[in-house]
Design brief:
The protein has 10 helices and 12 strands. It is an alpha/beta fold. The strands form 2 sheets. The protein has a 6-stranded parallel sheet with strand order 1-4-3-2-5-6. Strands 7-12-9-10-11-8 form a 6-stranded antiparallel sheet, covered by helices on one side. Helix 5 packs across helix 6 and helix 7 runs antiparallel to helix 8. It starts with 5 loop residues before the first strand and ends with a helix. InterPro entries: FAD_synthase, Riboflavin_kinase, Riboflavin_kinase_bac, Riboflavin_kinase_bac/euk, Riboflavin_kinase_dom_sf, Rossmann-like_a/b/a_fold.
Length: 321
């Protein structure tokens, strides 16, 4: 179902504005709840001959206000980087994504201006789908009643979708996914996402320490505030050939050999060396082996890596690739 996606870093220019079916949200993770929203959006757009469109914000509004109030600990962690989010939205049939910069101008925009300038003027919204608790405008002053009144005036329909829950009544939300990843519960995260948690990116050059230790790795930069818990994971890597490759990976700050605190993803492919520099790969997290540790010396680190590789091979021997 993957579509060709048109990305706008702000609202489309006048020449590119066409009537759309729109939904608004951050869509971090594009989890099962989001997927239900996007299926409804896609259906309504098809029935009405409109472009299925998502408006999202960068940074996350909570991140903006956390920075503004000098409370960085209140900023949410991120399940997906922008590349993975856009890929997931395209796979859900979204035709256009508008990334609206969340800044002082947008934070201070009145609810009526949000409707008239953004939804009606810039987006040409004809059908709008939002959550039942959707609020917008300065100090969250806009609500569903205001949207519906404006829709009658400006000619757009407003629909809502209740929360998506599993058979146990648990809500599918980005917060739930973040909680699962924070404690290393990959099975729960996969259930909520509808797919394995993954990180993608271009392979970059590292310090070549893994090669020196006998375990060469592919290095990927990780977006700030990654939701996943630091640790050692069994993973599979896509993008190195026609089929996935088994690997063991470290997500963290490399405390034994560095102290600058930058998070890095390092994956060691188990079935042989690869020439991966510059390639765009997707690393899927399958099973958590242990937390990240600081070892007293390189021999201790090497022994731990060897044990991690043995445990990863044992996992694949039981579960397959």
């Amino acid at each position: 179902m993957k579509t060709s996606l048109h990305l706008y870093r702000t609202v489309p220019p006048p020449a590119r504005r066409t009537p759309c079916a729109l939904t608004i949200g951050n869509f971090d993770g594009v989890h099962r709840g989001h997927q239900a929203i996007l299926a409804r959006l896609r259906q309504a757009a098809q029935e009405r001959g409109l472009a299925p469109t998502v408006m999202t914000f960068e940074p996350h509004p909570r991140e903006y206000f956390a920075t503004l109030n000098q409370r960085p600990e209140l900023a949410p962690t991120r399940i997906t980087g922008l590349r993975d989010k856009l890929e997931a939205l395209a796979c859900q049939g979204v035709a256009r994504v508008v990334i609206e910069r969340f800044n002082a101008r947008l934070a201070d925009m009145s609810a009526n201006a949000f409707i008239e300038d953004l939804l009606v003027g810039a987006m040409q919204t004809r059908w709008l789908l939002v959550g039942e608790d959707f609020r917008f405008g300065r100090k969250r002053s806009g609500d569903l009643d205001l949207l519906r009144e404006a829709g009658m005036v400006h000619g757009f329909e407003v629909q809502t979708l209740a929360d998506i829950t599993d058979r146990h009544g648990h809500r599918a939300s980005s917060s739930e996914v973040r909680t699962a990843l924070a404690v290393g519960d990959l099975a729960r995260a996969q259930h909520l996402l509808g797919r394995p948690f993954h990180i993608s990116g271009h392979v970059i050059h590292g310090q070549k320490l893994g090669r020196t230790l006998g375990f060469p790795t592919m290095n990927l930069r990780v977006a700030p505030r990654c939701a996943a818990r630091s640790g050692i994971y069994v993973v599979r890597v896509h993008g190195l050939g026609e089929s996935a490759r088994p690997a063991v990976a470290s997500l963290g700050v490399r405390p034994t050999v560095e102290d600058h605190g930058r998070v890095l993803l390092e994956a060691h492919v188990l079935d042989g060396p690869v020439d991966a520099y510059g390639k765009l790969v997707r690393v899927e997290f399958l099973h958590k082996l242990r937390d990240e540790e600081k070892f007293p010396d390189l021999p201790s680190l090497t022994a731990a890596i060897a044990e991690d590789a043995r445990n990863a091979r044992a996992y694949f021997a039981v579960h397959g690739l």
